[in-house]
Amino acid sequence: MVNGSANFVAYFNHLAPDYLKYKKRFAYYWSHISRYINYFISESDSVLEIGCGVGDNLNALKGNRKLGVDISENMIMEARKNFPDLQFELLDAARLCIDEKFDVIVLSNVLGYMDDIQMVFRSLKSVSHNQTRIIIAAYNYSWEPILKFVEWLGLKKKSGQQNWLSVHDIQNLLYLEGFDVFRKAKRMLLPVNIPLISFFVNKYLARLPLFNHFCLDQFIFARNSCVQKTDYSVSIVIPARNESGNIENALSRMPRFGTSQQIIFVEGNSTDDTWEIINKMVIKYKHSWNILAIKQPGKGKGDAVREAFSKASGDILMILDADLTVEPEQLPKFYEAIAEGKAEFINGSRLMYPMEKNAMRTLNEFGNRFFSSVFSWLLEQQIKDTLCGTKVMFRKDYLKLERNRSFFGDFDPFGDFDLIFGAYKLNLKIVDLPVRYQERVYGTTNISRFKHGWLLLRMVGFALSKIKFW
Question: Are residues 194 and 335 in the same domain?
Fold first, then answer.
């Protein structure tokens, strides 16, 4: 209990001695919340929980540094007694006196007890850095009559009159205090454990459109929106297979941006003279560009990108397909967006502007739009063009993604979904950036519509188990 009235402080002080035992009656519900939040926390994160109560939720969360704060003295005493290895402090969330910044700040079902939610959000600024993630769990307002009825039956302790907030209300308060909501989700249709039935309803039915609207728990993910633009160095990775006619154009048309630019050509088992042309261009442009030429060890664009990223030195990593159907001249827009803090993962989108006549075959365009709809649902945010090759992220985030790659495994020969899924798991803000898609002027596509289309469908099934129905 945090930032609440004297009545609520007295109420939770009274509950404290038996509260952990009481919560264990609803362990199915509470463990669901901590499990979902844990999906987006890594073992290396520092975690602050606002309104930690008796400390059971904080104890269940990942993290190498964990601190819980609460305004109820008795709750803090119980938390310290039950979880002596964790740190708990008696603090008002609206006036946090902590000389520390945290990677993740969790507020789980506590907004209802706060006198001034806006002041609490304002105080979070003092304990957050530019990459801090705010994760809020709150009741769905439409469940209020059901919860009051359960309290009337005596199956749940009465909690008094709370603030009942919609997602819009929470989002608006966060916005007023300089936080940007980048993802919203709903979970849990059946908050009690009925063997087999609860498993099916909450794991599958609750994740489907329409049913999802009626879920009990709402989750809001926010980040600091007041990020000053910073200048960064850039590594531009250009995977090239049978693209000898495009190599020099990629260099001659490349605009200047960032504090420095490293261009990495990664050649992938070409049957033409792509590798020879790349090496000629390294010599020809050695005084103009910092160029690295490498051969990928395996097969597929995904393998090529991973090899190039392992050699990259720039703060920002960019992918530019060597077919130049997305023009090099458009890359500064990606740089500006990420350098200004608009997002942490920028995904190119070819599906907004009209395309040149032969830029994309009809079946390919249909497939791209289909995968767009599926993955927007899977990732709980709009992803218009998952298969656009132009993607941008910070190298420090990619290194985290790389360390956590075992969660999804080496499943993606293209590399697009490996990066998108990884960015989602890291809880990065993903933003689409529209690009104009041009017709090829040299060579033919390396994508097989049917063979690779079937592979993409298999990856959707894989993503369902790892992202939506885990």
Answer: no
Q: How far is CA 378 from CA 62, 189, 391, 419, 420, in A?
A: 24, 18, 19, 15, 11
Both 327 and 454 in one domain: the answer is: yes
Q: Can you give the residue range of the structural domain that contains 147?
A: 6-224
> Can you point out the beta strands (E) in 165-276?
179-187, 217-224, 234-240, 261-267
Residue 1 lies in a domain: no
| Interval 283-305 mean pLDDT | 93
Query: Residue 97: what are its φ and ψ, rounded to 5°?
Result: -110, 75
Same domain, residue pair 220 and 238: no
Q: Among 244, 310, 251, which residue's Cα sits nearest to residue 277? A: 244
Whether residue 209 sits in one domain with residue 79: yes
Residue 52 lies in a domain: yes
Specify the higher pLDDT residue, 301 or 360.
301
Place of tokens 């969790």: 106
| Cα separation, 78 vs 402, whole angstroms | 39
Encoded tokens for 423: 């960015």
Closest CA to 39 of 267, 221, 266, 234: 221
Query: What is the rounded distance in angstroms from the CA atom of residue 352 to the CA atom of residue 303?
Result: 29
Return the biggest CA–CA distance within the chain: 81
Q: What number is the average pLDDT over the span 356-369?
A: 64
β-sheet bridge partners, residue 222? 134, 181
Q: How far apart are CA 295 and CA 250, in angstroms?
A: 18
Q: Report the distance separating Cα 50 and Cα 70, nearest Å.
A: 7
One domain for residues 170 and 318: no
Which of 203, 224, 245 is the last residue before a domain boundary? 224
- Do 254 and 371 belong to one domain? yes
Same domain? 248 vs 314: yes
Sequence-ordered strand ranges (E) for 268-366: 290-295, 316-319, 345-349
Distance CA 30, CA 171 (A): 23
DSSP 355: P
Q: How far is CA 256 from the centre of its chain?
A: 29
Residue 108 predicted with pLDDT over 80: yes
Q: 433-454, pLDDT tens digit by residue?
A: 999 887 655 555 555 555 556 7
